[in-house]
């Protein structure tokens, strides 16, 4: 059975979508069958894989609110083993349309359940908020990956997210595990970045991934080119870091099994 890894942070701009796209690409490059699920109404993960959202006939919205089979919505990417469940702006309507629905936090779980037999890894890019969509991403997950941008306020945001996760784990997903906290946008030349990284190690210890994602122009500019950074330059520092993270994820599954 496949593993669902949701990438969550209520804080925007922490490298969440960058991680979702590039981790998915790195796992695909390792010849693992991967499905990237864009659960953010902004649809940035969809754009990050070079998909023109205006040409989509259906999006994940139709799978969540309607009766569309996810197989009708899933599309190919430029990477052989990586496919996408895309999102568009209409996903914003989900909050209101599902509010009175029973088990509204488990709709994504139900949507992905039969796909776990097809894909080895399902990576969910959750929106940057504590919303119903984020709760769905947490409820559907086997593991969570939490990005931590190397800046002061991010430490508090991660602590708050962990508290939310503990509540949802008790209520909705008892088997949920935190795969790890990922330091992102790290610049070793900035003392504040180094101090935040040191504080994170003291506070979260073994929860931190060994991989650290650097502040990197290639990663920052990759979305404008509509392709993961490893497609543009497989030897770049950003590509090497996401290959390293993918290796940690592969080892995580081995350990878990």
From TrEMBL:
Highest taxon of the lineage: Bacteria
UniProt cross-references to Pfam families, sorted A to Z: AAA_31
Domain AAA: 4-178
InterPro entries with a match to the protein in the record: AAA_dom, DNA_Partitioning_ATPase, P-loop_NTPase
Name used for this protein in its record: ParA family protein
């Amino acid at each position: 059975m496949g593993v669902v890894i949701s990438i969550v942070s209520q804080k925007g701009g922490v490298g969440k979508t960058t991680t979702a796209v590039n981790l998915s690409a790195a796992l695909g490059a390792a010849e693992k069958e991967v499905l990237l699920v864009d659960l953010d109404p902004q649809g940035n993960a969809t754009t990050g894989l070079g998909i023109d959202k205006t040409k989509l006939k259906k999006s994940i919205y139709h799978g969540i609110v309607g009766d569309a089979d996810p197989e009708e919505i899933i599309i190919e990417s430029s990477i052989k083993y990586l496919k996408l469940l895309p999102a568009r702006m209409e996903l914003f309507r989900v909050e209101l349309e599902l509010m009175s629905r029973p088990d509204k936090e488990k709709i994504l779980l139900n949507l992905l359940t039969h796909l776990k037999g097809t894909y080895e890894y399902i990576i969910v890019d959750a929106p940057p908020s504590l919303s119903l969509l984020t709760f769905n991403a947490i409820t559907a997950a086997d593991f969570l990956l939490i990005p931590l941008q190397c800046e002061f306020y991010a430490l508090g945001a991660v602590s708050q997210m962990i508290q939310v996760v503990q509540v949802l784990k008790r209520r909705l997903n008892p088997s949920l595990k935190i795969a790890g906290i990922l330091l992102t946008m790290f610049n070793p030349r900035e003392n504040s970045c180094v101090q935040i990284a040191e504080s994170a190690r003291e506070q979260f210890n073994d929860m931190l991934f060994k991989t650290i994602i650097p502040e990197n122009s290639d990663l920052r500019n990759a979305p404008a080119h509509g392709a993961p950074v490893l497609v543009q330059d497989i030897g770049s520092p950003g590509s090497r870091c996401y290959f390293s993270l993918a290796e940690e994820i592969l080892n995580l599954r081995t350990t878990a099994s």
